[in-house]
Amino acid sequence: MTTTYTNQLWIVQNRVDVITQWWCAPDNPSSRSPLIMPAIALAFNYYMTKRVLSALSAVVTRHEAEYGELDLGLPQARAHSTGLTANIGNLELGSPEERELPRPPLAQPAAAANFCRVSVTPEELVLDFGINTQTEPNSTEPVRVTNRLVMDFSTAKRAWKAFHKVISEYEQGHGEIELDWQKRRKR
Questions:
Q1: From 37, 85, 108, 159, which residue has the greatest number of CB atoms within 10 Å?
Q2: Which secondary-structure segment (H or E) carries 157?
Q3: CA-CA-CA-CA torsion for 176, 180, 181, 187, nearest 10 degrees?
Q4: What are the strands, taking DSSP E only, across the chain?
Q5: Are 30 and 92 in contact (CB under 8 A)?
Q6: The whole model's pTM is what?
C-alpha cells in the first residue's frame, strides 16, 4: 500500500471519470524545495466521486461543529484561484516562474478505486482507497486497499469544495447521481 501525506489536489474530469492527483508540497508555492512524498493518482467514476464527496462533507462538518470553522484564507498578494485545487498550488501569481508549481512524479500509474474507508483523528483525516471485487452481498473476500491518503482538515475542506464543484457541474449536465443502487435499478 502506498501512503502519502497530502496538502495538494489536482483534478481532471471527462464524461466518465474523475482523475485525482494528490501530493504534499512546500507551504510556499514559489519555493523550489523538494517535495516530501511522491504523488498518488486515483481514478474514480462519478458514483465514487460523489461517495468521497459525501464522506468529506460529513467529516468536515462534524469537525467544524466540534472545533470551529476552518479558515481557508489564501495568502495575501497577487493570487487568485484559476481552477480546481485543494491548496494554493493552482494560483495565478506574478511571474511565469511563480506560476509553475510542478506536480511531482507519480509513485505508480493511476489506480482505479471503487472503495473508500474513512478514519478520523482530532488532527487528521485518513482515506484508504482500494478495489472492491465482491459481487455477492455476504462475500468473505477482503477489499484490497491500495492507497492511503493522510491530510489535515483544511486540506479535507478544500478537497470537499473541489469535489462538490466537479459533482455539481456533472449533475447539471447529466442529472442527479443516485448513490442507492436499488433506486438506480428501478429506473
A1: 159
A2: helix 153-174
A3: -50
A4: 2-5, 8-13, 17-23, 40-45, 80-81, 91-92, 111-112, 115-120, 124-131, 144-152
A5: no
A6: 0.76
Beta-bridge mates of residue 43: 19, 112
C-alpha count within 13 angstroms, C-beta hemisphere, residue 70: 20
Instruction: Retrieve residue 21's grid coordinates.
Output: 492527483
Query: What is the chain's length?
Result: 187
Other CB atoms within 10 A of residue 135 CB: 7
Q: How many angstroms separate the CA atoms of 135 and 126, rounded? A: 26
**Grid cell in block for residue 3:** 501512503
Query: Which residues are CB-contacts of 151 (< 8 A; sequence separation ≥ 6)?
Result: 5, 6, 7, 124, 125, 127, 159
Q: Give the DSSP H or E segment for 77.
A: none
CA distance 82 to 158: 14
Nearest one of 48, 18, 181 to 115, comparing CA atoms: 48
Angstrom distance (rounded) from CA 126 to CA 122? 11
